[in-house]
Structures are given as structure tokens and as C-alpha cells.
Design a protein that fits this description.
The complex is a heterodimer of chains A (about 575) and B (about 110). Chain A is built from 13 helices and 21 strands. Chain A is about 35% helix and about 25% strand. In chain A, helix 6 runs parallel beside helix 7, helix 11 runs antiparallel to helix 12 and helix 12 runs antiparallel to helix 13. In chain A, the strands form four sheets. In chain A, strands 6-7-16-15-12-13 form a six-stranded antiparallel beta sheet, covered by helices on one side. In chain B, helix 1 runs parallel beside helix 2. With about 110 residues, chain B is α/β, with parallel strands linked by helices. The chains are: A alpha+beta (about 575), B alpha/beta (about 110). At the A-B interface, helix 11, helix 12 and helix 13 of A face helix 2 and helix 3 of B.
Chain lengths: ~575, ~110
Amino acid sequence: MSRTSVPYSNLTHAPFSKHSSSPFSLVEAARQMPIAPGELRVFLLDDQKLVAETIGHSLKGEVGLTYEYTTTPEQAVAQAVKFSPTVILQDLMMPEVDGFEMIRKYRAHPALREVPVIVMSTREDSEARTQAFAAGASDYVLKFPEKAELLARLRNHSKAYFHILERNVAFEALKESQAMLKSELEEADRYVRSLLPAPERTASLTADSNFISCTDLGGDAFGYHWMDDDTFLVYLADVCGHGVGAALLSVSVLNVLRTQSLPNVDFRRPSHVLSALNETFSMEENNQMYFTLWYGVYQASERKLRFASGGHPPAFIARSDPTRKAEQLATHNLVIGAYPNVVYEESETDVSSGDRLYVFSDGVYEVDYHDNSGLVGYKTFTKELSRPPRIYRSKLKEQLDFMRRLHGKKRFQDDYSIVEIVFRGRVDRYSYLNEVPELHQLERDLREFSHRKNIPDESQVKLLLSLDEAFTNIVRHGYPQGGTGEIRLELSVETNRVIATITDSGIPFNPIAYKTKPDLKAALPDRTVGGLGIYLIKESMDDLFYRRVRGRNILTLEKVFEPAEAMGI
Amino acid sequence: MEISTKHDSDRCTLSISGRLDAATSGELEDVFEKQLKQGVAYIVLDMQNLELVSSAGLRVILVAGKALDEKGGKMALCGMKPDVTEVIHIAGFDKVFPLANNVEQAWEAITA
């Protein structure tokens, strides 16, 4: 056996790395080809050594040609895989196994499946040819072919094989680049989602949202946050179009609003904000893209909602007072970014406990009916919104289910983005130091508040116990380094529910996540001392909500009481 | 919070009123310690004038109960208002301390 070896190993199995992070290019694909163009690697299996050497002799000296053979059929496949031929020459009649069987073996092996096989036999009958081609042969020559003819066939088949490899490499590279693009879009989608706000629940209000993107990346972005103790901002932008470009602009707008980074702009004034955004994000400087926006400012102490919309669908407020009709909240303004120096108008409305505000993009209602009989539309969408939620507090899930029923599908044509704010009663605010004796003042404050709001004793005692536990926890564990801290308390009443939000700047601690439950059945000597406080809070309250925001723990406790006794809301 | 004690050899009746929480539980803890040092083994905790008990107060009661148990003594709780009874039940203290309507019944429960 002669061997002029080039160690190609099994390159045909994995022509390039699956983990390559370089983008697809033909140059890169060509670089990853296991063989060079014009390279000819001939592998022969013939039980007669003389034949093998005769062929080897006739091919000797050909530029770019490497030749290897075996006379042992059992070794042929393994040896061929190692050699990585560009073409195989195969004898038909051998004592142990026939050539047809060998062709089938090559075809069954992933590394040899596409390597051309030229049968070289003394058999001239058409049956042998037919059988050879049926087994997967690429060509058939009679022993012994003229050197020129053999070389021509070898080169032709090698070239064809090279093209197959080239195509495979290009296809794999394309597949890889598509997967990479998809994963990068998903990464961007995750980033956009990470900017969207978490649910919020305090004595002042609850805020929540729903976002279903129609493509990998949408043009909607929204947020809400407390600008200060009394001012809550809510905003939703819808950039024209979809995809990466729209998402980039929507994220830019969102970040400006989240961080309130427009110089010399009072973020309490919606019209000022819209004007400043209009100048900052002009179409000409933003790839000919504009956006619509709804921007609202809730002033808790005034119970007023000031708002402005730029080309955006009206927000919708459902009133808790059955004598008041639901309202559309919009101002007649141009979209943002279309023309410079536009003057934007703003408007305002009052807010009562239990009123529900919805801010959304047109994608929530521009939805086809399942039978393609038309679009659902704003009117039908808001009519459903105006119905009070069946389950306390949020309408979002019901609303989504409603739209999905009408549409007949889980996803919609456009982004489905909606923010829900439920306003609660007027808030009373208190402040304490992180010292145990302050508990006495907290008790006096809670008793006075409960008396004023006619909260029944039983609920009052449970709330006092829970606040006592939460307060004690903060004082004892919240400031391990010592030092003075402020613990703030907000109290409000919404219908038959008293709500307390306790805020501190101590170390992060989420009592809801604290799962340790005391063993209430243990005998006296085995009872553990401690761990009861949080358990008592959980047992005494109807709802608990915790968030860590900007270095502060915000814990909201809610207790339901008999509605007939509720007054002074 | 106010605490009054009636002490008779190894028995003591403690009456507590007001709130038993983090701000006041230290006072009760001191009284318990003093009683234990004086050789008290049986305590009835009269809670009829107690408005509220928090986990800080429950902790002090539990620690004292364990100390009495180690000495072969006992403690009973009595006279609780419904709100306080509820907390006692939530904390599972009804499983480890006899509960009684009044002081007399409480003494019967731990000394009979």
C-alpha cells in the first residue's frame, strides 16, 4: 500500500466550527473548505494489488493528485474516511464482498456519502452497470481505461464533489448566520422587555402592563415610575413600523423618559415633554421614523391626571362612580418628530378611588375578527374595558382573553401593549425613625386614621399587628451597620380595603420570599424562638406586595374589611 | 404596657395590659427572669387587658415557657380577647400552653 499522505482527518464531517461567531461570507466559507479547488485525491479498492499499482503508476506525477489504495475490503471504509478522497475507484468482482455492497457502504457513511464512486470493472454487461448505478455509483469504466480518459473522469468527478462541498459549506454558513441573527434579535427583544416596568402596588395606586410583540422586535415601548413622592408618570410610545430600526428608536425614547433626561424640561408638564421630544427626535435625524406618544402625570395630592397625546389613540379611564361615564383622554396633537416647532396641548382630569386608567397602542384593538369580518376597533375594545374586572383589581388578563377570543389566535398582527393604572384613595403619609419606641407613634397614627375612615376594630388590629411586625423587622435587621434611617408609611382606603405601604432604605429584604414557616406542632422544648413575625403578617393580611426600587424596600399590606362600615373614602 | 405580679412561693400570677410588642416585650422579659431566679416554677399569664401581642411578645412568652419546662414547671395563658386569641392560635401556642378563660381555671389547668 502506498501513501502520499496529507492529514485531512474527518474534515468532511464538520467542515467548519459550529461555534464560529464570524458572520457569513463566501470568503470565510471558502477558507473553511476541506480541500482546495483542483485538488484530486483518489482512493482505490481492488483485491488485486497489481491492478492497484498499475493505476497508481499511471497516475504518478500528476500535479495536485494524491493516490491511496487498499486491497482489503474490510479496511476500505475506515481507510477512505481517514484519507478523505475526492473520488473513489471501485472494483466489482472481489472474492469476499462484491463491489455493489462496497458502494452501498460508502453511501451509508456520512463522511463518504457524497464522494463520487467510479466503478472500474471487466464486466461489460448492462446488468452490472444498472446494478452499480442503483447502488449509488457515479460512473462506470471498463478495466483498464486509457490514462487520459481516466484522468478526465477523475478530475470531472472531483470537481463536482468540490462544488457539492462548497455548496454544503455555504449552506451551513448561511444557516449559522441566520441562527445568529435570530439569537441576536431575541437578545434585543429581551433587552426591550427588561426596560418595561414591573408591576407596582402602593397605597396610592396599582400599575401593571401587558406586552405581546408581534414580531421578534416591535415598535412599542412604555413605562411608568414615581418621579417624586407625589408625582407618578405613565407613558407609551409607538414607533412607526417594526423591526430593529423601530425598536432602537422606541428604546431611545423610553430611556429618555425613564431617566427624565431632557434638559430644562419640567416632566410634570406633558405638553413640555412632547415638545422637547419632538425637537429631539426629528424624523430627518431618525431614519425618517416618527412616533406617537401618550404621556400622563398623576399628582397624588391633587388627585389630578394631566396628559398629552401626540397622534396617539386616546387613553381610556373607567370610573368607579357608577354615575360617571368612562372617558377618552386625548389631546389633538401631531405625531412626534414630523415637523419642528410644533406647539403641543395638554389637558387634565380628576381621579377618584377605584378609577382605572388604560394607556395602549392601536395594536390592541386593530385586530381582525377570527372570521375576517373586519377589525375589532377602539369602541368594542374600550366597551369591554369599561366593564369592571371580575377578579379584584386588574382587568388586563380578562381583556387579553377577550381579544384573543375575538381574534381566534394568541398573537396579534401588531404589538399588543397596554398599561393599567388603578387609582386608590387619598393617601395619608407618615414618617418615623428606625427606632423601636417609634412604634407607639405608629400605633397612634394608625388608630387615628382607622377612626377617621371607620375601619372596624378587627381589621385595624390585624393591620396594626402586621405593621408592628414589619416595622420591628426593619428596625432590628434593616440597618446592620447602624445609623439613622427613615421609615415611611402611606395609608389609604379603596372601597372595602385598607392599604398600607411601608418604605425603608435598609438592606434589601423581601418578606414575601421568606418561606420559613415555624413548626406549629412541635412540643414546647422543640419550639424554635423567632421566625414568627413574617408568618403572622402573612396570616393576617389579604394581600402582600414587595418591590425593591432605587435602593428602597417597598412593602404594601392590604386588608379587606366589611364594606358596609367603610366611610370617608 | 403595665405588668402586675402576685407571687406565692413557686407560683406567680402575672397580669399584663396594653400592647406586648417589640417596644414593650423587654419589660416582660425582665419580670420573667426575676421570677425564675426567685424559684418560680408555675406561672399564669393573665392577658385579659392585653390589646395586642406581636411576635416579639410571643418570643418572650415562649422563652419563659421553655425555661419553666426545663425546671419541671408550667405556664398557662388566660383571659385573652378574641384578637389576641387569634394570634395565639396562628402561632400555634395553644399546642404548647394551656389556655383558660380566667385565672382560676388557668391555675387548675397547670396544677391539678
